[in-house]
Amino acid sequence: QAPERDPSKSLFENIEQSGLPDEQTYIVHRGKRCFALLNAFPYTSGHLMVLPKRAVPEIELLDEDEHCELWQLVRDAVIAVKTAYRPDGVNIGVNLGTAAGAGVPDHLHVHVLPRWSADTNFTTTVAELRVLPEALSATWRKLVDAWPRNGAADQG
Description:
By secondary structure, the protein is an alpha+beta fold. It has 5 helices and 5 strands; from the N terminus they run H-H-E-E-E-H-E-E-H-H. Strand 1 and strand 2 form a beta hairpin. Helix 3 crosses helix 5. The protein is globular and about 40 Å long. The mean pLDDT is 87.
């Protein structure tokens, strides 16, 4: 049973602080100040987000330690995605504010997702429907197993 959501916290703070096992919340990695989480509505299998544990709406509001760990974990996430999926490329993106497309504007997050040549299709473009070849639980396991051990963010 999922814990009750605390309305004073962001969606991501509630997930990170839920007390549920990571395999249920799809948290791929926990650092001291930041963590990596599967996107529950991915564009493709392997789509994850890296974000601070503290809800921060703007990148300039990160403290120095959060900033450094965030980008170290983005690097580790790219390594994990490349290891697990062997994509042709990787997209990294941040949408700050609703006008920029942020779905959760009160808690910045960096998207990291694998891409393949010609991976867009008619269904995604016209019907706004995504077809994923694997369950989120399988994606979670692949990325946890591929996460670099002793990554920069683990050494502090």
